[in-house]
Amino acid sequence: MLIFVDTSAFLAVLDADDLNHAAAAPTWEKIVGAGDILVCHNCILVETSALVMRRLGIEALRVFERDIVPVLHVEWIAREVHAAGVGAHLVAARRGLSLVDCISFEVMRRAGIRTAFAFDSHFREYGYETI
User: Fold this and answer.
1) What is the pLDDT of residues 81-126, one digit of tens each?
2) Residue 27: is it exposed, middle or buried by C-beta count within 10 angstroms (0-12/13-18/19+)?
3) Is the Cβ–Cβ distance between 3 and 115 less than 8 Å?
4) What are phi and psi of 2, to 5 degrees?
5) Tell me, what's the pLDDT at 100?
6) Is the dihedral of CA 45, 50, 56, 58 positive or negative?
7) What is the pLDDT of residue 3?
8) The CATH number of the domain where 27 resides is what?
9) Which domain range does residue 88 map to?
10) Any residues with CB less than 8 A from the CB of 92 and at least 6 apart, and which?
């Protein structure tokens, strides 16, 4: 199964103080162990890297890069996907919705992915199943 992984899930897995950590850690182990294809895109990696470094420090960032990134299928965002995400972001005109979220939805739509490992409520609002 294809599962999209959002920054919110990565942060919850890595940060023991995150409110979602107790649910995220075993979920991560389960989906990695099940052999599901875990998909994200390079904008998620940039966003996650910045947040992990700021909130948790270099050692947590090393764990992310060494242990998590290698099991991911990373989509590299092309110009047309970026443009579609920007268009959706501008049309939505919602302060809490990010450009990275809109790019994620476009990647998921194009790949036919219906399930996300995410704690960001926007995924459910936009019709995706979350785990």
Assistant:
1) 999 999 999 999 988 899 999 999 999 999 999 999 999 999 999 9
2) middle
3) yes
4) -90, 130
5) 98
6) positive
7) 98
8) 3.40.50.1010
9) 2-130
10) 102
Task: Name all contacts of 59-62 with Cβ < 8 Å and 24+ positions apart.
Answer: 60/14, 60/15
Percent of the chain with pLDDT strictly greater than 70: 100
Q: Which two tokens stand for residue 55?
A: 């909130």
Give the model confidence (pLDDT) of 34-50 as tens digits: 999 999 999 999 999 99
- Could you give the CA distance from residue 41 to residue 108 in angstroms, rounded to a whole number? 10
Mapped onto helix, strand or coil, the DSSP state of residue 84 is: helix
Would you tell me the crossing angle of helices 42-55 and 99-111 to the nearest 10 degrees?
A: 140
Q: How many domains does the chain have?
A: 1
